[in-house]
Design brief:
With 257 residues, the chain is of the alpha/beta class. The chain is built from nine helices and 13 strands. Helix 6 packs parallel to helix 8.
Length: 257
């Protein structure tokens, strides 16, 4: 497995992984610090998968090999949905810059058929993901969803260990990773198991809110190591050209998040 580069000197600017998502790079001061592992957390229908897909497409366009690991939805269905967006280019799939792998296929090949994985099986899964990322030269990776994988890990200490070891392995490859987390609507909920947000380098929280009787999607960068960033809440809109963002106004003033 490849070894990581030396950490940046104190005060040095981290190389940025430009997401290409309208407004998000501005919030983050130029993009996600390269090598960060970021939790994309939110309830059903808040735009988590769309954000993650656009992140990979924009990376593939920049020549960064990108990989989508899908746990619950077949790649064929994801590609059908992705093809409806104007920002999608089929040649990214054809020339291998953008790849989709179904995690259940990995489970089957590795013989991971238990309802709850053992510690050894968790380590095998980490090595397999890291080896695949290294083989493909992946620089952007999405795991959708972390929640589904952790359902088969279950114990908090094993979830922590899985995330720490996976993060270390992908950081060593120079890979910037998004982990999708499914949470129910409600104040104060940041992740499914309550441990994920403490381990990741960044947390982007998606949700729904009401404004003048309408339900609107909102996004907030709760934390991002390696950069200063806005913690305000932004309205997001899922459009054919991609995800668009604007400040969330309350009574004519920008929300403080």
């Amino acid at each position: 497995m490849a070894t990581g580069s030396a950490p940046p000197a104190p005060g040095a600017l981290r190389d940025r992984c430009v997401t290409g998502i309208h407004g998000l790079d501005d919030i983050l001061g130029g993009g996600i610090p390269r090598g960060n592992m970021v939790l994309i957390s939110g309830a059903v229908g808040t735009g988590k998968t769309t954000l993650s897909l656009e992140y990979l497409v924009r990376g593939a366009e920049r020549g960064e090999p990108s990989l989508y690991l899908s746990v619950t939805e077949a790649s064929e269905k994801l590609l059908e949905n992705l093809a409806t967006f104007e920002f999608f280019r089929p040649e990214l799939i054809q020339d291998g810059r953008l790849r989709f792998v179904d995690v259940p296929v990995i489970y089957e090949k590795l013989g991971l058929d238990r309802e709850e994985m053992t510690q050894e099986e968790v380590q095998l899964l980490i090595r397999t993901i890291a080896d695949l990322a290294q083989e493909l030269g992946v620089k952007r990776l999405v795991l959708d969803s972390l929640t589904s994988v952790c359902y088969r890990i279950r114990k908090e200490e094993r979830i922590r260990d899985f995330m720490l070891r996976l993060g270390q392995a992908l950081f060593a490859l120079g890979c910037t990773t998004l982990l999708v987390s499914e949470v129910s609507e409600g104040p104060g909920r940041l992740s499914t198991y309550g441990v994920e947000e403490a381990i990741v380098d960044g947390l982007v929280l998606l949700g729904n809110t009401r404004r003048q009787g309408d339900i609107i999607r909102v996004l907030q960068v709760v934390k991002m190591r390696g950069t200063s960033h806005s913690r305000a809440q932004y309205v997001i809109e899922l459009t054919p050209i991609g995800l668009l963002m604007a400040p969330h106004l309350k009574g004519g003033r920008m929300a403080e998040g």
